Amino acid sequence: MAWPITDEQRMIQLMVREFTRKEIEPVAAENDRQGRFPAGILEKMAELGLMGMMVPAQYGGAEVGAVSYSLALQEIASACASTAVIMSVTNLSCEPLLQYGSEEQKSHWLPPLASGEGLGAFALTEPEAGSDPGSLRTLAVKAGDSYRINGSKVFITNGAHAITFVLVARTSQEGGKKALSAFLMPRTTPGLEIGPEEEKMGLHASSTVPLTLEECSVSLEQRLGQEGDGFKIAMTALDGGRIGIASQATGIGQACLDESVRYSKERKQFGRFLASNQAIAWMIADMATELEAARLLTLQAAYQKELKQSFTREASIAKLYASEMANRAAYSALQIHGGYGYTRHYKVERLYRDARVTTLYEGTSEVQRIVVSREELRG
Ligand code: CAA
After folding, report:
1. Rounded to the nearest whole angstrom, what is the distance from the C-alpha of residue 309 to the centroid of ligand 1?
2. Among residues 247, 379, 348, 377, which one has the least CA distance to residue 305?
3. Does residue 1 fall inside a structural domain?
4. pLDDT tens digits, 198-211
5. Rounded distance, CA 164 to CA 186, Å?
6. How many CB atoms are closer than 10 A to CB 237?
7. Which of 99, 204, 318, 358 could bond to 301 as cystine, CB 3.0-4.6 Å?
8. Ligand 1 centroid to 198 CA: how many Å?
9. Which of 155, 375, 154, 360 is nearest to 249 (CA)?
10. CB-defined site of ligand 1, < 6 Å
11. Which of 208, 235, 320, 367 is the pocket-test mutation for ligand 1 (most atoms within 8 Å of CB)?
12. CA 313 from centroid of its chain's CA atoms
């Protein structure tokens, strides 16, 4: 790849590639089969500084920037998309704190997440509020110097393992999305109930649960920003999160290409290797071309974030393209593997299932098109 990454970024990429080959690749298929959360791997990733890569060193983070973060996440995702989403959502839950937290809040809440002592989760989605989070109903009612929160959340990644939840709730019944506020909630909050794991199509080694909040009390100091800032806080966090999912999808696409190249040079039919058929070679050419485009779009969005320029449009373009690319790549990879690809003996079966969610979470492809078209048509 010719994109001008620095020596430090290249070093991080190679270090994570080596770690991934040694620690993640050998166990990823079995973790998927067993639905086993990769706790031991996450501990090692924390030691390498992978859980708070964009968090300043003063709060315990690695402070290596969004480009290195994206490169690292791509490597992890190429072996295990479940591990990648766990890392991505923990980094995502640091973002609102970094951008809207007071000094006291940053010093208190960031170090355990950034050092990987525990995971973060982002509690926005509700049963009736998915693509339209402005309509969420969880209610936080102020009572003296605290809020009482009641409601429910669904599809919360890391939910069963997180130590900290960034939660968005309504602080007034009036005002629509302008009446949302964000809160920091420890897992130990009385009244916070973690529901059973969703039985998902893919990402079997990751955790996705519903939450119920019954009379959860949080202090005023646990509110992020001002009352009414919740929607903007969520959108800002998702801008960063979408770089994470674009990186995850790019990693999945890379794995689809790698598996296809390997298999098509090993497998013979009609007396010759699959790769010597133009139909197969062209599938590989298309996969490589689209993968390269996805990687460049993703790194461009990450670079723009690093420059502290607006990157809403770039993150949505990257997420849209990379996630749809990953699904096309997974389709082609499985096609190249034929009937064997449809069995659990080959990695492409897992890649196919894991790719599917990337066009859904952190904003569907349709939501990304809303974001991009609004940016284009503005003015
Ligand atoms: N940054 C800062 N502010 C933003 C913003 C951004 N990216 N996007 C919007 N805003 C602001 C707007 O400027 C506007 O402010 P004003 O009222 O002051 O002008 C306000 O927010 C409202 O904006 P919109 O009117 O554009 O909002 P909308 O209701 O039309 O929604 C949307 C726009 C893009 C569709 C948005 O609702 C959206 O992103 N939906 C998808 C939600 C999503 O991605 N959910 C994922 C859940 S988390 C997850 O999946 C994590 C996981 O577990 C893996």
Report:
1. 18
2. 247
3. no
4. 999 999 999 999 99
5. 5
6. 26
7. 318
8. 25
9. 360
10. 85, 89, 122, 124-125, 131-134, 157, 177, 231-232, 235-236, 238-239, 312, 361-363, 367, 370-371
11. 235
12. 17
CATH of the domain at 184: 2.40.110.10
Q: How many degrees, rounded to 5, is the angle at CA 72 between CA 67 and CA 75?
A: 130
The model's pLDDT over 186-199, given as tens digits with 9 standing for 90+, comes to: 999 999 999 999 99
Q: What are the residues whose beta carbons fall under 8 Å from the beta carbon of 170, sequence distance 6 or more?
A: 136, 137, 138, 139, 140, 179, 180, 181
Q: Report the Cα 360 to chain-centroid distance in Å.
A: 11
Task: Give the mean model confidence (pLDDT) for residues 109-132.
Answer: 97
Domain presence at residue 2? no
On whether the CB atoms of residues 210 and 152 are closer than 8 A, the answer is yes
Q: Answer yes or no: do 64 and 184 share one domain.
A: no
The structural domain count of the chain equals: 3
Q: What is the pTM of this model?
A: 0.98
Range of the domain at 145: 120-229
By percentage, how much of the chain surpasses pLDDT 70? 99
128 and 206 co-located in one domain? yes
Q: How confident is the model at residue 220 (pLDDT cuts 50, 70, 90)?
A: very high
Q: How far apart are CA 217 and CA 357, in angstroms?
A: 33
